[in-house]
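During the reporting period, we have paired protein sequences with backbone structure tokens. One record among many follows, to show the layout:
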Amino acid sequence: MPRLLIALLLSAAVTLGLFYLMQSLIQMGGSALTEPPVGSVLDFVRVKEEETVEKKDRKPKKPPKPEEPPPQMEQPQMDSPTPNAEGSGGMDFSADVGGDMAIGGGLALEGGDGEYLPIVKVAPVYPRRALQRGIEGYVIVEFTVTKAGTVSNPFVVEANPEGIFEEAAMDAALKFKYKPRVVNGQAAEVSGVQNRITFQIDG
């Protein structure tokens, strides 16, 4: 009960205060309509300060000089691709086809004009049995260079070890191509040409 009485008293006081405020506002409004306004009007003008803009010349930075590429390694040139042996098992191998030697005629490349010259030398197929066992060796094959520049009558002069690489070496020799020897404007056969073929496993 005391709270309710306090609330009623406060509300009554607020209501009376509002009535009094409204009455005073009405009186002031009436006087404002009849009396001329008193006072002065002030105009405020905002003056902008001079702005100084600093210009910075931003030149793009020069890109760094590219590093010089490493010199390219000279790649060995092969006359023809080396055939892969069947069942090589992922092992790398190489068969080195050596230079030609003609019996009684010296090296073929040392001859003068018109001497026979090798054009194509096919690397032999590495025998699968030797590759699986890791066997290396060489074969010296002797043959005849025909007037057409092909190889005929190849046979084995020396093989180490024997009975493994001979057939592969002779098959490769039959695929060799030569520029035939020219004597008095005529192509001539060259017999007794020897070639050393080396079989070596890389890695």
Remarks:
- The helical segments are 2-34, 128-133, 166-173.
- The longest helix spans residues 2-34.
- The mean pLDDT is 74.
- The chain is about 25% helix and 30% strand.
